[in-house]
Amino acid sequence: MHPFPIEESTALEFDFMGEIKAGFPSPAEDVREHLDLRRLLVRHSASTFFFRIDGVSMVDADMDEGDIIIVDRAVEPYNGCKAVCFIDGEYTVKRVEIRPDGAVLLPCNDTNKRFKPIPVGKDDNFLIWGVVTYVIKKA
Fold this sequence. Notes:
Order of helices and strands: EEEHEEEEEEE
Strand order of the largest sheet: 1-4-5-10-6-7-8-9
Strand content: 35-45%
CATH class: Mainly Beta
Structural class: mainly beta
Number of domains: 1
């Protein structure tokens, strides 16, 4: 696992051309604004990290191989969240189902049956490392 931390000095600013219609075409407006991706995508810079997805167990959660996920360690995990988890010495990204007796880490790939849910019990070395807040898609 090699996270890429966000630093305050990291410039993530671009010219933003405005909205683009995905329906019927409209005349282009010559409007530009300044878009700061750090301000838009990162709430807690000291606890936010980028990861590149390696594998296909989360494709039905729109996390495809090569995509970048933004993970915030300051966000409180919640039932159904997608999160980077540490279990028994390994890191993985899964959807987390929180139950009274523990948790289940759920893959999101209905077409590949080799990915099985991972039950988490009290005897497992388990930590929800951080919650996925955004996915940056590879075109």
